[in-house]
Structures are given as structure tokens and as C-alpha cells.
């Protein structure tokens, strides 16, 4: 069973450090949505969380959802690609 999701403020505190954080799928997408908002407000890519990139590199389901999300956004505006 997947660990209960932490609140956004808890995730932001956990991911501000350089040490790796294990995210649930729900937490990964909560942070992606938050990061999309701050990127839209003009933040630089160095603000995008390494924990999200790490989760996307390990979870095929989230990576597929993320790729789908990018395809939906394609054409509407330019978007950053995560590694």
C-alpha cells in the first residue's frame, strides 16, 4: 500500500534540501502542478524539484501521465522538459 500523501507545505519543506525524498505518485503530481505554477510566474528551472525528476525516472505510470500532460500543453505554450 502506498504511503499516505503529505500536504504540499510538508513536501516543499522536504524537497528544499538536496537529499533524496521518496514521493508517492500523488505527491509527485502535486509538486509538478505547483512547479508549473511557479514556472508560469517566471521562476527559473533550477527551482524545479529534483525529487520530482527522480520519481519520474523510476515510475513508468507517472512518466506516462507526465508525457501525456506535456502533449496536451504542446502548442498552447512553450514548456520545460524535465530530465
Structural notes for this entry:
The protein is mostly helical and 83 residues long. The chain is 57% helix and 0% strand. It has four helices and no strands. It has helices at 8-15, 25-40, 50-58, 60-73. The model has no long low-confidence stretch (mean pLDDT 77).
Give me some keywords for this one.
83 residues, mainly alpha, 4 helices
Q: Which structural class do the helices and strands define? A: mainly alpha
Share of helix, binned: 55-70%
Oligomer type = single chain
| Discrete helix count | 4
Order of helices and strands: HHHH
- Principal-axis shape equals globular
List the uncertain runs: none
> What is the CA-CA span between the terminal residues?
28 Å
Largest sheet: none
Overall pLDDT metric:
77
**Total count of strands:** 0
Task: Give a concise summary.
With 83 residues, this protein is mainly alpha-helical.
Describe how the helices and strands are arranged.
Blueprint: H1 8-15, H2 25-40, H3 50-58, H4 60-73
Amino acid at each position: 500500500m502506498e504511503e499516505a500523501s503529505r500536504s504540499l507545505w510538508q513536501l516543499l519543506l522536504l524537497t528544499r534540501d538536496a537529499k533524496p525524498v521518496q514521493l508517492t505518485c500523488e505527491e509527485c503530481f502535486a509538486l509538478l502542478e505547483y512547479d508549473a505554477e511557479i514556472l508560469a510566474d517566471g521562476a527559473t528551472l533550477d527551482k524545479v524539484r529534483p525529487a520530482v525528476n527522480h520519481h519520474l525516472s523510476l515510475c513508468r505510470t507517472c512518466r506516462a501521465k507526465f508525457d501525456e500532460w506535456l502533449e496536451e500543453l504542446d502548442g498552447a505554450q512553450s514548456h520545460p522538459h524535465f530530465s
